[in-house]
Amino acid sequence: MCAPAPAGAELLPPAAPKEPKPSPNWAGSLGLNTVPSARMDKSGTMRFHLSTLDPYATAALSMQIADPLNITLRQNGYVSNLREAADRLYPAVDLKVRLLNESATRPEIALGLMSAYGHKQMAAEYLALSKRYNNFDFTGGLGWGRMGSAGHFSNPLKIFGSHFEKSRNATSEDANGPDDWFTGDKIGLFAGVEYFTPINGLSFKADWGADDYSTEALIDPGFDAPDPWSVGLHYQPTENLGFGLGILGGEKIMASVNISAALSDWPHKWEEPSPEDPSTIKIQTTRANDRGVWASLYAHDELPIGMQIGRALRHLTEVDPEGPAEIYITPSHYGLTGPTLRMVRRDVAAALSDERNGSPAEVWRNMTMPAIVPTDLQNAEKVKDLRSPNRPFASFRFILDNQLSLSEEDGGILHRESLVQETQLNWPKNITIGGGFRLNFSDDLESLSSQYLPVDKPVRSDVAEFAGALVSVDRLYGAFMHSLSPDIHTGFTAGYLEEMYAGFGGEILYRPFGKTFAIGAEGWNVWRRDPYSDLVLDLQGDSTLTGFFNAWYEFPDSDLTAGLKLGRYLGEDFGATVSLDKRMDSGVRVTAFVTASEDDDPDIFGGTTHLYSGLRLTLPLGTWRRMVDGSEMRTTIAPLGRNAGQTLDTPLPLYDVSEPISYRAISRSWDQLQK
Question: In the predicted model, is pLDDT for residue 12 greater than 60?
Answer without folding.
Answer: no
